[in-house]
Amino acid sequence: xxxxxxxxxxxxAALTYSIGVLALRRPxxxxxxxxxxxxxxxxxxxxxxxxxxxxxxxxSESLYGLRRRAxxxxxxxxxxxxxxxxxxxxxxxxxxxxxxxxxFMVVLPYFKSKLHSVYNRERExxxxxxxWGPGEERFDDADYFDGxxxxxxxxxxxxxxxxxxxxxxxxxxxxIFACYPWLHASCEGFSFSYQLLYLLDATGFYSLGLxxxxxxxxxxxxxxxxxxxxxxxxxxxxxxxxxxxPPWLKALQGALLSCTYTVLDYAQTGLIAAVFFFxxxxxxxxxxxxRMSAPTVYPPPPPPPPPKVAKEGIPLPPDRxxxxxxxxxxxxxxxxxxxxxxxxxxxxxxxxxxxKRCPVTLMPATSEQIxxxxxxx
Length: 377
Known about the structure:
This protein has helices spanning 2-22, 30-34, 36-55, 59-63, 95-132, 155-199, 208-213, 222-241, 247-285, 288-293, 345-355, and strands at 66-73, 88-91, 144-145, 151-153, 215-219, 333-336, 342-344, 370-372. By secondary structure, it is mainly α.
């Protein structure tokens, strides 16, 4: 169960790496990487639907010989014909259970990935704002001109058109930034709880999604594996018999169905081979001796506390984008590596050249300890 749950992540890593390597010579493949979440979601949607329809299991579960069974709880009666003492009966999946299984395996992970991306962007923006202050437009008072000097697009007009959309987007990002950590922690907590209870035989459901669907995952019997191919052929023959229209249209539709099934079968086989190839390459480049001899990686230590402002030093302005020396908007921001405070380059260079110290902490400093900062735009 654990291996089947981790297989989609390994498959995505293998595909992303392979497409990234191919994109070095085929630049059009960068479009796939730009929409990586959508591309992988569509791929898994086709594979999971195909696998659930044919084998009553997800793509990764069918690889490990697992099958999904619907759990039906019967009320105990005095009927002697009731053979099951615990009142639980396993049967094949129903149509709505297959649809909801696809939702839990494809749609929800897609939205979770998008929320994670939005959360990471908002966190980076807040980190950047804490260092540089809130971002501002560089050309607030300027217009764009054409060759004759006439304004083409006014910045004020553009701001008026996009202000509502921008405010709404920022509100949504703030809501996601505040709610996503709790949502992620809840999902991970439920997942860990169900897996722990599953290992202790306290529940028959491996995850919250399986419990909500009322589905057990169990090993496929030998007879099921033998009858799987005949079952698939019966399903496909039944679909061909349901085709309507003239004979030439039926033949065309049948050919399209056959091509679709062939493509899905080859895609499933190829992806399984890609996963095993990726795992083999991972093992090849990281032998057991390297893993044993590799030093233990410890988490990085926390950053040191910021230096204290001296009583006789220059006080810090409430706006972090203001230079403490000239009390103006910072120009050519530069940091004193000794203390970490940011000033205008001209102001701090003149001050340190004259007083040989940091103006805020009064710690001894030289002009060689001034570093120019570049804003990543």
